[in-house]
Amino acid sequence: MKLSIWMAAKAVVCIVFGVGFVLMPQYLGSIYAMSLDPSGALMARLFGAAFIFEAIVLWLPRNAPSSDAGLRAIVMAVAVSNAIGFVVTLLATLSGVWNALGWLPVVLYLVFCLAFAYFLFAKPAAK
What we know:
Elements (H helix, E strand, L loop, with lengths): L2 H21 L1 H7 L6 H22 L9 H26 L8 H20 L5
Helix pairs in contact: 1-3, 4-5
């Protein structure tokens, strides 16, 4: 599969979660059995804004040439941030911070981490 497809897929996932967290953080929190006070809702909205930022950063250069240094930096940032996200969400799920639906972000972070790491290390010149 091509990097541009992975970038588009990650951008779509980010925009869906980002808009959701910005517009309805308490509702999204409740889906995961989390209750958000006003401070938690603020943090969720800021988290959503970061997701929207990531979606834009992934969507716009998705068709850039694979030799582009900026594209490589984006791929590295996504791989690293998704590895961190995987660990954080895995620990949250295993410790019962949220319900079984917490496995969804665990899997999403893992899949995107592995996909972007593949293009970073195993196939550095592929687009």
